[in-house]
Write a structure and sequence with these properties.
Strand order of the largest sheet of chain A: 6-1-2-3-4-5-7-9-8
Low-confidence stretches of chain B: 1-5
Number of domains of chain A: 1
Shape of chain B: globular
Radius of gyration of chain B: 17 Å
Helix content of chain A: 25-40%
Largest interface: A-B, 62 and 45 residues
Strand content of chain B: under 5%
Oligomer: heterodimer
CATH class of chain A: Alpha Beta
Largest sheet of chain B: none
Number of strands of chain A: 9
Distance between the termini of chain B: 6 Å
Mean pLDDT of chain B: 81
Number of helices of chain A: 6
Order of helices and strands of chain B: EHHH
Low-confidence stretches of chain A: none
Order of helices and strands of chain A: EEHHHEEEEHEHEEH
CATH superfamily of chain A: Gcn5-related N-acetyltransferase (GNAT)
Radius of gyration of chain A: 16 Å
Helix content of chain B: 25-40%
């Protein structure tokens, strides 16, 4: 099963040292205090903040509305000082878009703290947050017998495409605004899990 | 150690899952209450996989101790071909 909390490592950019952190379940209280209350208290300009797609997300509301559902999960990475450096929410009751008749995990949201985004704050504080979170969803999908299949809808950009493509995600739909649905097939999930030493 | 995945991850999401993409065979899961992470995982597995429901449907989790539940989980994993994951990856 997916045992939490779990030790993970993230890169402290300033020291270039990997620090131990914890992958945890995100509670409403933590979301309110360590995400909604702190993530956007940074020195980046208003215009930069405005461009970030998640600047209006209220994580405490999202978690509060969904935490009781067994089909829904919210995970976060917490440092030893207690700060939340990234979070992901997903549902386990989705249909696979690639493999008919199979289930998949659908990622509702994934975000690193703005202080970890190099296009918002230079230098960022930590790196590796998103990969740890995304891989957690893949691991959970695998442990639930869903083959590691994960799909999500992403913003359009070549950088985004490359990130997901490099990890084996396939484009399954692109709308007229350029929003892209990606799915990680079971074979690619297994390959990623093996590469990262989980299988 | 390999750390080649530590680059950019875009902010993604905020799009609700359309009904067409939600499985319609696991309604029961949406109303169940559980008392531990182990129970949660077992109930999720039972709900997601029909062949588990056929085989293990008479299991009353409340009457089992944790060791027995873990044995039950092992049987379920074997049936589904789920290998245990190592606890810490590279």
């Amino acid at each position: 099963m997916f045992d939490l909390p779990e030790d993970v490592h993230i890169l402290n950019v300033a020291t270039n040292v990997r620090e131990k952190a914890r992958l945890i379940r995100l509670t409403r209280e933590l979301a309110a205090k360590e995400i909604d209350g702190t993530w956007w208290s940074l020195s980046a300009s208003k215009s930069i903040r405005k461009e970030e797609g998640d600047n209006h997300w209220l994580w405490r509301k999202i978690v509060g509305e969904n935490h009781a559902k067994l089909t829904w999960e919210a995970l976060a990475i917490q440092t030893s000082s207690g700060s939340i450096e990234g979070a992901i929410t997903y549902r386990i009751d989705a249909r696979s878009r690639i493999q008919s008749g199979e289930g998949a995990v659908y990622v509702d949201r994934i975000a690193t703290a703005p202080r970890n985004r190099p296009w918002v704050v230079e230098p960022p504080k930590f790196q590796g947050i998103g990969s740890v979170l995304l891989l957690a969803a893949v691991r959970h999908s695998y442990l639930l017998g869903l083959g590691g299949r994960v799909w999500l809808t992403s913003l359009p950009s070549e950088r985004t495409r490359k990130f997901y493509r490099d990890r084996g995600f396939e484009v399954i739909f692109e709308d007229s605004d350029g929003m892209i649905d990606f799915e990680l097939p079971a074979a690619a999930a297994e390959k990623w899990l093996k590469k990262r030493g989980f299988l | 150690m390999i750390w080649d995945d530590d680059d950019f991850v875009p902010v993604t999401g905020g799009v609700d899952l359309a009904d067409d993409y939600v499985r319609d065979d696991i309604d029961a899961l949406r109303d169940v209450k559980v008392s531990s992470d182990l129970d949660r995982h077992i109930v999720q597995l039972l709900s997601l996989h029909k062949k588990l429901r056929v085989r293990f449907r008479n299991q009353d989790l409340a009457s089992l101790d944790d060791a027995t539940k873990r044995d039950l989980l092992t049987d379920m994993n074997d049936l589904l071909g789920i290998k245990p994951l190592k606890t810490s990856g590279k």
